[in-house]
Amino acid sequence: MNFLAHLHLADISGTSLAGNLAGDFAKGNIADHPLHLQQGIWLHRQLDRITDDHELIKELRWQFPKSLQRVAPVLIDLAFDHMLARCWDEYHHTSLPLFCDQAYHALEQTPQLPVRLQRLVPLMKQDNWLLSYAHRNGLEAALQGVSRRVSQPQLFQGAANALVSLDVEVEIAFRTFYPQLMAYSRILARKTPEQYL
Length: 197
What we know:
Radius of gyration: 16 Å
Number of helices: 11
Shape: globular
Number of strands: 0
């Protein structure tokens, strides 16, 4: 899952939006991070593990061209954010533009975010990354952004075309898997280890 999905799952599970998003940026022992972020980081890690190990996601990875196999998990994360944004009204009662504004506000108001996330929040808000996922050009911009931040950007060559050709397969996987992940997020929020609360 990418940024929008983790924020959505945080919201529906009644956990910290900032904490859940911090999971992408908080390295090492959870206990080494501020207490108000710990449940979200823990939940983020649990949901990532469930996603990575799910047979449906493994099957989808293998449908990408061989040249994109190494980055297929990243492509699926971005494509799922695109699907969630496209179908947002089916998964959340608040409009996507309003939810995005609320998410940016929550991130701005949360102290002690990981440094990389602190630096990213103004850029996310300025270009409205979350809302842009609803459109194909927003997905392609996200792909370009990710490829610029890795040491081997050539690994993403042809990624945009692959996502177009696999659009139906991605949507089927998303619509099958994401409701399960929503249920997991609610269950796990109730089962968070006491030391992270």
